[in-house]
Amino acid sequence: MNRKFIIASLAILFSIHLQAQEVVLKGKELFGNLKARQIGPALMSGRIIDLENHPTNDRILYAGTAGGGVWKSSNGGASFASIFDDHAQSIGVVKVDPNDPDNTVWVGTGEIWTRNSVSIGDGLYKSTDGGSNWKKMGFENSERISSIEINPKNSNEIYVGVLGALWGDSEERGVYKTIDGGKTWEKILYVNQKTGATDIIMDPKNPNTLYAAMWEFRRTAWGFNSGGANSALYKSTDAGKTWNKIHNGFPEGDLGRFALAIAPSNPQIIYSVIESKENKGLYRSEDAGASWKLLNGDFGLVVRPFYFSRLVVDPKNPDILVKGGLFGSISRDGGKTFKNLGNMHADIHDIVFDINNSDRMYVGTDGGVYRSWDGGSTMDMVDNLPVSQFYHISVDNEEPYNIYGGLQDNGSWWGPSSSPGGIEARDWNPVGYGDGFRVLKHPTKNIIYSEMQGAQNVWRYDVDKNYTKNIQPLPIKGEADLRFNWNAPMAVSSHQPNRFYMASQFLHVSEDMGDNWKKISPDLTTNDPAKQDKESGGISVDKSGAETHTTIFTIAESPIDEKIIWIGTDDGNVQVTQDGGTTWTNTVANIEGLPKNTWVYHIEASVHNKGTAYAVFDGHTSGDMNTYVYKTSDFGKTWKSLATSDIKGFARNIQEDYVKEDLLYLGTEFGLFITIDGGKNWSRFTNNMPATAVHFIDLQKKTNDLVLGTHGRGVIIIDDISPLRQINQEMLSKDVHFFAAKPSIIKEEGGFGGGSTELQFKGDNPGSSAKIIYYLKKRHTFGKMTLSIQDEKGNKIIDLVPGKSKGINIVDWNFRKKGPKVAAGKTFTFGGFTAPRASAGKYKIVLTKGKKQYESTITLQNDPTSIITEKERISHKNATQELFNDMEDLAYLVYKIDENIKKAEALNKKDPASQKVTSAVIKELNALKETLVVTTGDNYVAEAEPQLREKLSKLYGEVANQFEKPSFAKLENKEVLETRLNEGKATYEKINGKQIAKLNKYLTKAGDTPAQILTKQEFLSK
Amino acid sequence: MSALKSILVAMILAISTSFYAQTADEIIDNYFENTGGKENWQKLEGITMKGVMKMQNMEIPFEQVMMKDGRQATTIELQGNKMVWAAYDGETSWSRNQMTMEAEKSDNEATENMKKQSKDWPSPFLNYKEKGYTVELIGNETVDGTDTFKIKVTKDPIMVNGQSQPNISHYYFDTENFVPIIVEEQINEGPMKGQKIKMSISDYQEVEGLYFPFSQSSDFQSMDFKEFVLNPELEETLFTFPEGK
């Protein structure tokens, strides 16, 4: 198994070239090499916004995602790698410069398919090295960039379409132009604060001819409006100096969003899909936009224009065109008729044709990237794009614990935090359809609660029985209809295992896992009828329930007192009851600096004090992108803001540490922020943590793992954050500080796993090694630094590779000691690579930095679930040690044989007269050696018959790797091999006394010296 | 002792100049100045690096030789067998097959890329303009908890699976003493294609007036150097492809 690894590592090796004040540490200075672990999953992937291919190299493809940044494939879409981790992860458009396609890539951030859950962008970026480094090129406040067009003859001439803000007015909208490669920008087409650019298209044969689609649109928390008098299609024939509407043949009246495409093989042919009350559908122009004809108004073309307005024409054939949509539509007769694309995840956002072969297509959906080799009829999903979009996550208390969560248009799932061979697609289990949101495990039973959008279904799933029941609360006779949020809140009680909460505008409680419900509150929202829009959508009515407003969004039962329950509403109320729902107090008026009616995204009831809670507010749906984080210690009578300028992005979730009250974890639209001083200073966590939107955070109580549900990069875990609890001024001022650690458990496991191909995403496991955690005040760069483990007597067990970062360093020790010295043979013996395991007990950690030495201890403990007795462990340990010694005895024996043979051969060469003496030595020793180690063959099918070394190392390896006492068969086998070893030693002594003695005599006579044999001790320590 | 003194001197020097260093060239000049001087680096004809490589449970003693003309050889010792594992003699690049332990020639692309890599001696930054390389200061970045200058070096394009591909590395120079502490390179083949591998560099020590990092480690393996021999005298056969062996 190790073979492959050795090869790989050696290849890498070969290619490497030489080469007294308060201490406030921020970001990486503090976190050192404490690293996040991205576990996906990728099996359902996530929403893809824009695909872009390289104009001359068909192996290169870019995918811009809704919340997971930009991914690049350099193997024709077989696999992708993330290239935009440090920047806003919501992407509008990716564009490759046709003049320098290998290097220059532009990215406009901010998703353009403006559903309710979209994130925001923060401007335009450029890379001049194929995506390795990115530079911001302006448009910080654009929120959404829809299009980038570059003159194919002049890289300095670029047009950018800004769609702009979704939830407010903005003057940044419109079409911009640069003629100096992006240093300066001129706004060349602007309509008004409500109307943005959805598409700019350049005539491929004439860069002075441009088409621009402008769209009037607006979203609120409670509604969406597409269209208006200002939506229009424009054309310029003078490189953007003047623009004219080209509506000849279009429907009259207010228009909505346009889809727009030009046929690359014949730029006279232009297609547009128009959103309109009357005569909506696909229009075709054969005179470059001078006149238009309606061809088709099929459902597939006109459905949900705000979500699907991408139209793509085959680069070679002007009559083949594809339209994004619920299923995606393709026409092969110039747009007269359409059929659906092949079977894949619904909601098609973008399509690209391969540059050389139009039968090869790539499609971006709500569920990842698909590829086709037969013109879009058969679709194959890309399995390694972990851009899944969680709305919510939770964890259970199993070992290993499981993570539960719901995703945008990808149902609800649960999967393990660790799995043999890595966390694979097959480890994840579905537990709900539609859009998934909150998924909660029953505290004691094997039952999972999950839901779909607007609580249309609330499932109680009995895992053991594989049985599901819909348990949603329903309106009671004579009372108001229930208003459930798109992402409806649910909660399980930490006091009564069968108690289950759900909330509409009321708080509902069930004491029997959802079979029966009781309302325990009045309407806790503002119940503002102006925010209860039943006819959302604008020109195209769009009733999905996504805009249901004036609802409860968060439920927080106090972990200390079941009578205390906090409620947060999407219209800005923070309500608390201290008597189990009899009386409620709205505390939001006590919060200073918070705009009215700001969405209460999360409330965290403290484990430390009854009256303490944290509230996070999110105003982005009213255009307010500020961060709002508050703490109360008196049931909401007073609130204190914990937001500082360290935090980037509006916040959605906060998690309190269970042990250290001042340690808080905050999830915002641009990542994870941590404070160790109660909110005075915040640090962004960036070690393997992209700038993705963190929608929910949970802290696993047994492992202290911080588990993040991100809306674009799946589940991200920071394993064991407990070192953060130990940070204080005293330790920060020390050069080296070892963190106290719980005893490390030597897990007794070993199995199989790993059925994924190299193109399937696999999440890393947490690692079962002992962790040595220390803080360095300064990065170690000059002079020697070592880290070793010693037994209590001070004997060195093993050297580890020390971490040298400033901040926290985590070094793994896999409980193994040094491996044995192995006898030299023609090939390798794989058992010989086995190192024995250290026994349970206390060990010294010794860190040496230059002349200074720092010490700590580490305790290893046996697996508490083990059934192995102490006596059996001792037998195992002794047998392992004896076999280890046998291995080294044999190594020494073979060494002595080899040295004598070498000497004899050298003499034979030099002095032919010595032949009689030397050949006797060579013959006898070789005959012996052939019984001890293999001297022929290879490591594969030409393998030689195993000799003593091979048999001994196989037995040694097996015994050393197990935990229990060796079986009688193994012990018997050990005896047989040891007898052979002793025979070998005896034979050597015989030869040594006879043939070698003769040789040595001859040598001495000739003024030479006998073979210089190291002592065993010297040999072993060599 | 003298090594320690020079480190101190180097560091003080570094601190006093760090405020002025702004361009990539200044940073690179500082690096050479602090690690022995350009002239001395230029004089270097070859080097043997002896150490131990650690991967998983294995500790593999190795010796790596690199010569000014691009020749190089890596000798390893595994289970009592010492062998040249991989080498390049200026024309032929080869390594041992893991199954047969026999030497096999590297594919033509790897060999060509090895030839190109010869120019890196002893550092891609030394006379980088003459090498035809370009460098760019990307900016300041915190890595390993430490403020660094991120410098991109673009070398001659390499061939990967039939296509020419840009060859870019990033070096993170500690702003305090101007030595690289992280080198980042892109993985061009295999399941991790397109991802980046970071090599952490530390334990700089003086060897005959030049400073070398005695420790290099990545997520996959680490190398702990025990000895650097400058301008070693070697048998020519060390590098040669062992025909029929």
Structural description of this entry:
The complex is a heterodimer of chains A (1022) and B (245). Chain A is of the alpha+beta class. Among the domains of chain A are: 390-534 and 544-723, 7 Propeller (Methylamine Dehydrogenase, Chain H); 743-750 and 760-862, Immunoglobulins (Immunoglobulin-like, Sandwich), CATH 2.60.40; 870-1021, no CATH class. Chain A contains nine helices and 66 strands. In chain A, helix 5 runs antiparallel to helix 7. The longest helix of chain A has 41 residues, at 870-910. The two termini of chain A are 27 Å apart. The model of chain A is unreliable at 1-19 (pLDDT under 50). Chain B is of the alpha+beta class. Chain B has a single domain (2-238), classed as outer membrane lipoprotein receptor (LolB), chain A, CATH 2.50.20.10. Chain B is 20% helix and 47% strand. Chain B has five helices and 13 strands. In chain B, strand 5 (93-96) and strand 6 form a beta hairpin. The longest helix of chain B has 17 residues, at 2-18. Mean pLDDT of chain B is 89; it is low at 1-19. Chains A and B meet through helix 1, helix 2 and helix 5 of A and helix 1, strand 1, strand 2, strand 3 and strand 4 of B.
Task: Set down the secondary structure blueprint.
The complex is a heterodimer of chains A (1022) and B (245).
Chain A lengths: L1 H14 L12 H4 L4 E5 L7 E6 L7 E5 L4 E4 L7 E2 L8 E6 L8 E5 L14 E4 L7 E2 L8 E7 L2 E9 L11 E5 L7 E4 L5 E9 L2 E15 L2 E4 L5 E5 L7 E2 L9 E8 L7 E7 L4 E5 L7 E4 L2 H4 L8 E3 L7 E3 L5 E3 L7 E2 L7 E6 L7 E5 L2 E5 L7 E2 L8 E6 L6 E6 L4 E5 L12 E2 L9 E2 L5 E5 L6 E5 L4 E4 L19 E3 L7 E4 L3 E4 L7 E2 L17 E2 L13 E6 L7 E5 L4 E4 L7 E2 L12 E7 L7 E6 L9 E5 L7 E2 L9 E6 L7 E5 L2 E5 L7 E3 L8 E6 L6 E5 L4 E4 L10 H4 L3 E3 L5 E3 L23 E7 L8 E6 L5 E5 L6 E7 L27 E9 L2 E11 L7 H41 L4 H18 L15 H14 L6 H38 L10 H6 L1
Helix pairs in contact in A: 5-6, 5-7, 5-8, 6-8, 7-8
Chain B lengths: L1 H17 L5 H11 L3 H6 L2 E10 L2 E10 L4 E7 L2 E8 L4 E4 L6 E3 L2 H10 L10 H4 L2 E10 L2 E15 L2 E12 L5 E7 L9 E12 L2 E8 L4 E9 L15
Antiparallel strand pairs in B: 1-2, 1-13, 2-3, 3-4, 4-5, 5-6, 7-8, 8-9, 9-10, 10-11, 11-12, 12-13
